[in-house]
């Protein structure tokens, strides 16, 4: 192809210095012109939060040779909004990639995840968007087996586009022996929280939240199933949260006011 | 009915002292036993954020006569998690109501809204859940025309339940002359942000984010359309974000790794 190199917006939620985004930047540099806008501190679990009551900082940072990079004081979603409006100024990048997250974002985690929320925001802005996550929370996680998939999946999106209103949620197993790619649905599940209750030096209670994911879904077409069987799980994801199938039932209720 | 009074969990994102939650508490007290767990400070725009890197406070507060109330230092979603695990301790409330939000949560706002994310979390926990929002951001907004709908809609949910995986997003017009209730889908739209750039006393740039909602959807079955025509808009909402209709297309791509 003689087409000019695509412009690729790279974001994440673990912060601009995280090893996961470094791997993503390195791979994206092989196929396009990379612009990075990422939080200046870890923003895991920030979901689709935006910064309303406080001002935002956005500063150029020269972290990796030859890459246009900005760190932002806000959330992952703020990063995408600033990128679109202050850096790209209305021009749109050809694709927005988020991650690689240190930790899975399968099943219900799509809601809590800053990584996925940044990709969702990209899609809302009309940019074909992909979130990438690895099943390993460690700072020094080995991302090397993800590298060929980052390029292959991003190139497919660049060539084919994505249907309006959709994006991709891509999760990698930690085991390097990948069996292949499965296109999946989001598994049903939830977290069971435990709150570790402690007493501070001023004799006041406080809690540390910890949670354990419970899979409630035995389907073999889910992201959780694919991951636990050694496959890369790709879930096409949308931000229309309407439960369309429930509309007829509600219409039959007859509200009495 | 001789059935015992339902237990109603009340949450919000504007904070426990907001006028909107007071109206919701007053109405819910007429039909059930009310337990309130709400943020100790405004949490608008927090989306589905949870608190990971910091501990949480949860303290009893006697704000309104005869109501069991707790203020929480965390996000709206944290409030629901603490309510379920530390206050209800596994017993479940019969319904979770969130709001009344000072400001609409129609269309894409369902993603940014702490009010709706608290209701979504209630639904994930298996509790029939409803988010209520009014088209008025003012602190002294008049919620009186919402009152009969709060009871009617909540009682319908208590009687009928809600299909697994779904909840209700209820938005009220600001005009008291309500035409009725419309069951809707989430309108397509997005925000166009403007970043008000300023210089701080240390000569560094900072930005205030402001956004203007742009409706992209001319459908007459949307929440935005219903609201602008004087109806209460109810959108059945789900947290399965899979774009099921895109799965066949992705399966046809043939990923090359």
Describe the structure.
- Two copies of one chain form a homodimer.
- The first copy, chain A, has 257 residues and is of the alpha/beta class.
- In chain A, 25% of the residues lie in helices and 29% in strands.
- Chain A has helices at 19-29, 76-87, 109-112, 114-124, 147-160, 223-228, 247-251, and strands at residues 7-11, 33-39, 58-60, 68-72, 95-102, 129-134, 166-172, 180-183, 189-199, 205-215, 231-238.
- The longest helix of chain A has 14 residues, at 147-160.
- Chains A and B meet through α2, α3, α4, α5 and β9 of A and α2, α3, α4, α5 and β9 of B.
List the main descriptive attributes of the protein structure presented here:
homodimer, 257 residues, alpha/beta, Stationary-phase Survival Protein Sure Homolog, Chain: A, nine-stranded mixed beta sheet, 7 helices, 11 strands
Number of domains of chain A: 1
Strand content of chain A: 25-35%
Query: What average pLDDT do the residues of chain A reach?
Result: 96
Structural class of chain A: alpha/beta
Q: What about the largest sheet of chain A?
A: 9 strands, mixed
Straight-line distance between termini of chain A: 63 Å
Which pair has the most extensive contact? A-B, 85 and 85 residues
- The number of distinct helices of chain A, counting runs of at least 4 residues, comes to 7
Widest sheet of chain A: strand order?
3-4-2-1-5-6-7-11-8
Number of beta strands of chain A: 11
The coarse silhouette of chain A is globular
The quaternary organization reads as homodimer
């Amino acid at each position: 192809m003689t087409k000019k190199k695509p412009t690729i917006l790279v974001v994440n939620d673990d912060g601009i210095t995280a090893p996961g985004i470094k791997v993503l930047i390195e791979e994206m540099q092989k196929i396009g012109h990379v612009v990075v806008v990422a939080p200046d501190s870890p923003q895991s679990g920030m979901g689709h939060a935006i910064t309303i009551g406080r001002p935002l900082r956005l500063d150029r940072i020269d972290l990796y040779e030859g890459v246009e990079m900005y760190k932002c004081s806000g959330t992952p979603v703020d990063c995408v909004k600033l990128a679109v409006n202050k850096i790209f100024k209305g021009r749109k990048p050809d694709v927005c990639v988020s991650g690689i997250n240190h930790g899975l974002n399968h099943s219900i985690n799509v809601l809590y995840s800053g990584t996925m929320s940044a990709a969702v925001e990209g899609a809302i802005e009309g940019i074909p968007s992909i979130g990438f996550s690895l099943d390993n929370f460690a700072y020094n996680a080995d991302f090397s087996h993800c590298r060929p998939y980052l390029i292959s999946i991003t190139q497919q999106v660049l060539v084919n586009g994505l249907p309006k209103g959709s994006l991709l949620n891509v999760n990698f197993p930690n085991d390097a022996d990948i069996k292949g790619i499965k296109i999946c649905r989001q598994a049903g599940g939830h977290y069971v929280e435990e709150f570790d209750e402690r007493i501070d030096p001023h004799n006041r209670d406080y809690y540390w939240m910890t949670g354990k994911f419970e899979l409630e879904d035995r389907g073999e077409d889910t992201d959780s199933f694919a991951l636990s069987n050694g496959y890369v799980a790709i879930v096409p994801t949308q931000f229309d949260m309407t439960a369309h199938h429930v509309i007829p039932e509600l219409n039959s209720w007859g509200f009495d006011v």
